[in-house]
Structures are given as structure tokens and as C-alpha cells.
């Protein structure tokens, strides 16, 4: 019991409480002393300072507040212009999506289930579809029927897209080259209650031809058919400034029509505007030439009715405004005309190729500044009176008494701190020696409280740290040895892959290039190329299951067996299928780990340009021929499984003839299965598009490196998770 009482009396909690109370009292007294001194100083200072402050503020508040207001207004218009840009880009993107989908429908009708074709005006989920045929169109024409079928398949998607714009009035529609037109909500009203769509104002007329609309003619009249969306100039329909955006879609013959939408520019601006303006404001939209395209002004130089460009106005302020606009950046300009001064804040809207501008009247700004100044001075006067009242209450306090209490508190606190911190200082000194690496030293403290327990725990911790350091040293050594081994393995594997691509001494009628990029230190992919004789070359690409060392070992085995058997068995014949079958038998033998390899190998006769190939479960290669003038996936008549799975498989070979300029592109699944940060696949479709758009005439080295660059651009910051191997062969 006595020991317990002594432990409690000497507990560190009690010591800390005493120390904390003493420190708190000392701090309080110090603050109180400083406060008393401050009271007298503030009393004298405020008597002289407040009148001077009012005079100074009255001079500077207008300047600084005006600058703040200008920056605020500029920030407002920049934010509104950015919102306007986003609100217009979204339906543009949706329009591009609809056009791309419709191109798939018209080019591959057999892949899609045809919907029930309706040529009547119908309503789906409160969205009204209108059907129009241009004057003179033959409704029984195969071209018209084809367009009607394809466009009707778009109704559900068109309805879903249009449903996103319940609060923003716009009209989506499709116009085919054959004269068929399908629209959704073409009679939609603007915020002003007016019909504004080109379709709503023209449809129903006997001579109406939807192909005469600006959204269609902007593409149809183009000498060079663009494949991206275009924006029309601003038109005034029924008193509304309307702009159209259209994206072309294509069938196998070329341009087949457009997907478009109409939108009121006034509605778009009002929908994008912030609602927290502090006073009345007006706005207008102008193009880069200074022409007013839309305005809330009914008259004056900033109105549409003025029908002039700001460049035509001789005012110096207007010329400065136009000069700032031509620099393609946001800003604010002061305009003085006809006895009125106002500020014009502007910001570019790239999608609409123009500028959004807000107009703030200077009188309104001055009135706001005056009101702010009066409020501030009133607040200062009120607070000043309160401060003097507080000073009066505490002026009678005695500084001598506070000084005495402070000295006593400091003396007591000093002695308490010195007594209770001595053991801690001793521990601190001992820990410093431990930091030098002397883990054999022990800390000795006999305070009878938690500090003594702390010292003992530190001693135990030092013992454990020494054990951990010894263990980490051992693991670090083993890891370094493993990394050295992996580096040697990577070098050996890399050296096994051919680096010389000009391997024929008898023929120079071809180009060849290959690349292997492991996802880890060593790869499971490989490629090979070698001459069987003076006229025949073998090209191979393969992908071993798994990754790392096991895949690399199986890769070496597969590559060695295939190459040796090719040299042995193809001396007097072209039986490549038998070579692959025998390779499979040897890989199946003792394959207890169940590993396998996909493979595509081909024997190419450089003299006759005949290619014999065998595919073992590998990705179909891409082939560019003079006949098709485009890359296509090579269609293998019969699909065989990968090697190493079953020793009962007898592989078959196929033979095709190549011509001058024909190109063969081999790759592993690391190409098509590359992913980006959104976990989207690069895919066979994107690969085929890249090859046909960029690689038709490129040499093999440019083809391989170009595809890899496109993969890097697609993947972005996503990590490569699979080996990437490519090989390209081309006859000159």
C-alpha cells in the first residue's frame, strides 16, 4: 500500500498537471500584464489615429474597391464564358457520338437488329419525333429506305441524348443525303417563347428540302469533305439568334448526311450565366471581327440592330476594346460615349469563335462604392466608441500587483520544472549516444515513476531495433543478389532476339523491323526471323502464358525448338504445319506447369512472294495488299489452339500470294489490350484505324514505332501491364 501511494505521489501525470497549472498561470499573468500596457498605448494612439485613418481610407477606398470590382467583373465574365463553352461542347460531343454511331449503322446493317420502321410523327417519353421528306424524294427508292431504316435505329439513342437537355432548349435532327429527315422536339420554344429551329420554321412547306438547311449545306457545299463537326454562322430565325452544329456521317460510298442540332444563342448565354450579380447588367456576343451577333441591348452600338462592326467606330475606347479582343484573351475596358461611361468585361468562347461580353454602368459602380464607404466608416466609428469604453474600465487596474504576482509565479515554476525535468534530460543525453550506433549501452534512471518505466522500455526497444537491423541487412543483401540475377536474365533474353533485320544476302526487295518491350524485367513474348535458305525467310511472333522468369524460360524453350526444327525440316519442302506440330509435341512433353504459347509463324518466299503460314491461337495479323489498298485482319480458314495444350493436335498451314508493296503486321495481345487510366482497351478497332489512317505507305520501322507511340498516347499515365511485341514485313 505504501509503495502504491508513493507511486501515485510520484506519478508523471501529477507532475505534468502541476507543471501545466503553473505554466498556465504564468502565461495568464504575462498576457494580462501585456494587455494592461497595451490599453494605455491604444488609448493614446486611437485618439490621433482614427481621424487620420478616415481621411486615408476616403482617398484609397475608391481606387482599391474599384480595382476589386473590375477584377470581380472580369472573373464573372471568364466564369460565364467557360460555362458557356462547356454547355455548348456537351451537345457537340453528343452530336459527334450520334454521327459516329449512325456511320456504324449504315456501314454494317447486318450487325444490328432493325427496329420497326415508322415514317409517322410519333412521341416517345414526351419526346416528339418528326419525319420529313424533301420535295421530290422517291419514298420507294432503295437509298431512301436504307436511310430510313438506319436512322430509325437511332431513335432510342436520340431520345436518350435529347433527354439530357430538359432545361436547355435545343433541337437534334438527322438529314440524309437521300432527302430523309428525322428530328426530335423541332418545335421546342426558346426562353422567350419563340420557335427558333430551322426545321420548325420550314417543315410542312410543299417545297421544303431539309438538305438546304445551313447544317447540311456547310458540309455538302464543301469541296473537301471534312469528317468532323462544323458550326454555322449565327442566323436570326423568328427574332432569335440561332447557331447550328452538324457532324457528317459516312457510308461506304462517302458522305451520307449529317447529325445536327439548333440552339438559340440567347438561351445558351442565359443558361450559362451566374445568378449572383450585385446589380443590373447587360451582355452581348460578338465575333472576332467585332460584329455583334447577339445582344440584350435593343439599341445603341452594342445592339444587333446597329448592324455594324465595332472596328468601324472611331472612338478611341472602342478601338482599344477591339485591340484587346484581337489578342484572344479576357479583359475589361472602359468606354465613354454620348455622356455615358461603362465597363465592358469580355472573355473568349473558342467553340463559337467569338467573345462573350458583360456591360456594367459606371454610375452603378460608383453608387456601390459610396454605399460600401459609408458602411465602413459607420462601423469604424461604432467600434472606436466601444474600444474607449473598454479602456476606461481597465485603466484603474494596478500594474504593481500584477508585477508581484508574475515574479512569484516565475520563481515557483522554475523550481518545479527543474526538479521534474532532470530525469528526462538524463534520458535525452543517453538517447543521443544511442543515435551514434552504440546499441550495447543501457539507460539507467531511478525516479520511481513512469519515467523509469520509459527508460526500461527504451532499453527493450534498442534490443529489438538491433535485431531488426540485422534482419534488414540480410534481406537487403538477398534482394540485391536477386536484382543482379534478373538484370543478367534480361540481358541474355534481349540478346536472343534478332536485332539485325537485313538478313538476306540474295534479296533486297523487302523491309523488316521488330520490337519487344517487356512489362517486367524479362518477357514472355518473343519474335524471331531467319533465312531457311537463300530464297525463304521465316518470321515468327509468339506470346507465352504468364509473366516473369517462368514465362521467359518457356519462351526460350519454344523459340529454340521452333527454330531448330525449322532448319531441320524445311530444307527440301515447305511443310511448316509439320514443324509447328512437332514443336507442340516437344512442348507438351513434361509440361507439368501447364504453360502454353500462342504463335503465328510464316515462311515467305522472297523470289515468288508466296507466304505459307500457321496460326496457333494467336491474334490475327493485319495484312495490307495491293488488291484491297487497306489493312485488314487476316482471316484464318481454321482456328487452332495454342501450343503446349495437347499433343493430339495436328496443325494445318495456309498459303497466300503477296505482291509489291504488300505489308504484314504481327503483334501480341499487349498491343490491343493496352489500357488507359479509365481502364479502356486500345482494342483491335483502334489498331485497325491507326494502321489505315497513318501506316499505309510507312516503312516497317515507322509502322512499329508509330503504333507504339499511339499506344503511349492512349495509355497516358497508366502502367504497362503486359508485354508488347510487334513485327512488320513489307515487300518493296
UniProtKB/TrEMBL annotation:
Keyword set, alphabetical order: Hydrolase, Membrane, Transmembrane, Transmembrane helix
Short name of any one Pfam family annotated for the protein: SpoIIE
GO molecular function, one term: phosphatase activity
GO CC terms of this entry: membrane
Entry keyword annotation includes Transmembrane helix: yes
Xref: SUPFAM superfamilies: HAMP domain-like, PP2C-like
Boundaries of every HAMP domain copy: 418-470
Residue spans crossing the bilayer: 16-40, 396-417
Single Gene Ontology BP annotation: signal transduction
Name of the featured protein: Sigma-B regulation protein RsbU (Phosphoserine phosphatase)
Organism: Succinivibrio dextrinosolvens DSM 3072
Lineage, uppermost ranks: Bacteria, Pseudomonadati, Pseudomonadota, Gammaproteobacteria, Aeromonadales
